[in-house]
Amino acid sequence: MTDEKPALNAAADHYLRVLKSWQDPQTLNPAADDYFRTLAGLKYPQALATAFPRIANMLFELKDDKLKLRDCFASLIEDVRGGRQGFPFEVLMNIQDVREAMLGDVNQFAIDDATKWVS
């Protein structure tokens, strides 16, 4: 058992370094980066990962809880508080693509035939 302590300490130190970088809102978690690079049916969401790494990290963190993930995507796309600036177009499209890949939903946007607006 004493031979395992250095390996466990090294693993714990590595985990803490990764966790600290993940908590930095300006740094994309390496595990999240790997996940998005290997997610089937998804082109890497470069605009999202670069401009909003904290959002990419949050989506990665919720990947195993579909209900919370669905709520998270809804809160990102729908402005229920009013006055939000919104995302740049490329980021919005990345969010939609990630949503589709993670949840299997083809399209969250609803087209209102009366106004021809997409919301």
Give the gist of this structure.
This protein has 119 residues and is mainly alpha-helical. It has helices at residues 4-23, 30-38, 46-51, 53-61, 66-77, 89-103, and strands spanning 111-112, 117-118.
Written description of the protein model:
With 119 residues, this protein is mostly helical. It has one domain (4-118). It has helices at 4-23, 30-38, 46-51, 53-61, 66-77, 89-103, and strands at residues 111-112, 117-118. A two-stranded antiparallel ribbon has the order 1-2. A hairpin with a 4-residue loop joins strand 1 (111-112) and strand 2.
Mean pLDDT: 79
How are the strands ordered across the major sheet? Answer: 1-2
User: What is the overall shape?
Assistant: globular
Question: What is the total tally of β strands?
Answer: 2
Q: Number of helix segments?
A: 6
Total tally of structural domains: 1
Task: Return Rg in Å.
Answer: 18 Å
Q: Spans of 5+ residues with little confidence (pLDDT < 50)?
A: none
Distance between the termini: 59 Å
Largest sheet: 2 strands, antiparallel
